[in-house]
Amino acid sequence: MTPQDQALYDRVMASFTARFGHAPDLVVRAPGRVNLIGEHTDYNDGFVLPCAIGPATMVAISKRHDNHVEVMAADFGDARDQFGLQSPLERNPEQPWADYVRGMMCALQNAGYALSGAKIAIAGNLPKGAGLSSSAALEVALGKAMLACADIDIDNTRLAQIAQLAECDFVGTKCGIMDPLISAQGKAGHALLIDCRSLGLTDAPVPDDVAIMIVHSGVTRGLVDGHYNARRRQCEAAATAMSVAALRDATLDMLEAAGLDPVTKMRARHVLTENQRTLDAADALAKSDLAAFGMLMAQSHLSMRDDFEITVPPIDALVAMLQKAIGAQGGARMTGGGFGGACVAVMPRAKVADVQAAITAQYRTPDGDIPIIMVEHPGPGVAIL
């Protein structure tokens, strides 16, 4: 267990024991993720290239012999929620974090799994609002824990599909499969090229001498406020206009001939070009061609800025600083759903100190703080500890 995981494990164990007076039956860890390239392509049946990272969510759990669930969130001042599994679950307007818990319980039951009540404590060390998929990590960890308590073992891809339904149908963010799937299926030392239609996974090894740097802009993002869902509707409208099942099936020639309004055309153009960039980036990574990978990251960021219009000025400035500091030996782009969050950069490990120093000297968050900088290497997916 890494020191980071050990500290998180100790914290969730302490929270559980303080609340319930005994040790949990088990603890489950699910990681956050960073997407190297392939943004807003997942719900268009396209390709993405994420990896699991070190920061994670842990769920400590003990089985109850009734239908009552009591859950405590260590990251929200030990806030509590409780509910029964036998009655229809509704959202909790007073504690939005609890919706992810209730949503996952609802999705598991809707999928036909018989759950028992439980005592649960949750803790994480993923920065909130950074676009590193803290919500998917919570849902995947919780789903794995609840099923383990019921002595049910399911494929991790199926677990990810249920987590996606929890977020789409209960929480209300019409997200794609990428976030829960990489949290469930992450592989140490590898990014994964995910075909979001077939859910096929292709290993993309990340050499030990390559570092992945994540810089939190300090601009907190929130996807349920409509931006994300609006982009999805625009993509679906473009696919319908071109008579294809999803934008994955369209071509740029088809797009030119479709007669779409300018905004919808721009949205679709981003997805079509981003799919090809993602496939090309996986090839570049396999060849350890960081220069080509960096060029593709730069093109991805410009497409997100100009065609998909999901970046914000502080993010654009931060990406430019990263690109200048890295030079031709890698690249940087915004990562995540957009409208704030984090930037991801790929570079030789030997350049990390210089790049970190440049960002610390030049960039400040909207609150005037030095940004959170994380240096990562791909880690494993969900596990019972």
The value of Rg in angstroms is 21 Å
CATH class type of the largest domain:
Alpha Beta
CATH topology of the largest domain: Ribosomal Protein S5, domain 2
**Main structural class:** alpha+beta
Tally of alpha and pi helices: 11
Major beta sheet, specifics? 8 strands, mixed
Order of helices and strands: HEEEEHEHHHEEEHHHHHEEHEE
Low-confidence stretches at least 5 residues in length (pLDDT < 50)? none
> Given the C-alpha coordinates, what overall shape results?
globular
Beta-strand content estimate: 15-25%
Known CATH architecture of the largest domain: 2-Layer Sandwich
How many E-type strands? 12
Mean pLDDT: 94
Q: Give the % helix.
A: 40-55%
Through-space gap between termini: 9 Å
Q: How many domains?
A: 2
